[in-house]
Amino acid sequence: MSLGILTNVAATYAENNLNQTQNSLQNVLQQLSSGSRINSGADDAAGLSIADGLTANEAALTQSAQNAQNGVGLLQTADGALSQVTNLLDRAVTLATEASNGGLTLAQSGAADTEFQSILGEIGNIGSTTNFNSTAVFNGAGATNFVLTDGTSAGVTTISAAATALTATSIGGVTFSAADTLTGATAAAGQTSAGTTLTAITSAIAGISAERGAIGANINQLNAAANVASSEEVNLSSAQSSILSTNFGQATSDLAKFQVLSQTGISALAQANSSQQEILKLLQ
C-alpha cells in the first residue's frame, strides 16, 4: 500500500467501526437502564407490534374480568333479595296455616290476614326498590348485560323472570291479589280461603327456589369466566414480558464487549492518525 496524505484509509475504517461500537454501546446502556429490550420501533418493529397487541388484549381481559365481577354483584344482590322474599313467604305459610284452623275467631283470622297483606306489600317493595349501582335489579324489562371478551352474557333472562314476578307480586305463576284474603264472611269461608292461599304460597316458594337456583348457576358461570379471563391476562403478560424485557445476562455481556471495542477502537483511530506522521520522516 502506497503512502499518501490525501486519504487516511486506516483512520476511516477505525472511525466507522468506532461509530458502530458507540451506537451499539448506547443501545445496550439504554436497554439496561430502562429494563426494556425494545425502546423504539427501530429496535424490533415486529416485536413492538406484537407487544402492543398483547397490551390491548391484556386491557380487554382485565375489564372482562371486572365485568364478570360486576355481573356477580348484580346476581348476588338479586339472590339476597329473593332470599328475603322466601323468608316472608315462610311467614305467610305460618299465617295461612294458622288461619285455616277452625278454632280461630273472625277477629283472630282478620289479624292474620292483616299481617299477610303487609307481607305481600313488602314483597312488592323488594321488587321495586332493590337496585345495583343505582339501577333497578327487578325492572321487569330485562337486566344489564355483562359482556365478556368472548361475548358471554349471563343472568339476564333469570333476573328478568324474577323481576316480573316481584313487581307484580306474582311468583311462580301464582298471583296474590286483594281477593286472596285469609278471612271471609264466615269462619268456614275464611278457612277455605286460607287453604287456597296456602297452596299458592307453597307454589310461590318453589318458584322462588327455582329462580335462585338459576341465579346461582349464573353466578358460578360468571365466576368461572372471570377466572379464565384473569388466567389469560397473566399468560399474555408473561408473553409480553418475554418480548419486551431486557435479557440482562446478554446485555451485560454485550456491555463488556462494546466497552472493550470502544477502547480498542479509540486506540486504533489514534494509531491510524499518527501513522501519517511517518511521511514527515521521509522529508527530513
Mean pLDDT: 75
Radius of gyration: 40 Å
Shape: rod-shaped
Distance separating the two termini: 22 Å
In terms of per-residue confidence, which ranges show pLDDT below 50 for 5 or more consecutive residues? 154-181
Strand order of the largest sheet: 1-2
Largest sheet: 2 strands, antiparallel
Looking at how many chains there are and whether they match, the oligomeric state comes to single chain
Helix content: over 70%
Strand content: under 5%
Order of helices and strands: HHHEEHEEHHH
Record field, number of beta strands: 4
Number of helices: 7
The chain-level structural class is: mainly alpha
Briefly characterize the structure.
With 284 residues, the protein is an all-alpha fold. 74% of the residues lie in helices and 3% in strands.
Describe this structure in words.
This protein has 284 residues and is mostly helical. Helices cover 74% and strands 3% of the residues. It has seven helices and four strands; from the N terminus they run αααββαββααα. Strands 1-2 form a two-stranded antiparallel sheet. The protein has a two-stranded antiparallel sheet with strand order 3-4. A hairpin with a 2-residue loop joins β3 and β4. About 10% of the residues have low confidence.
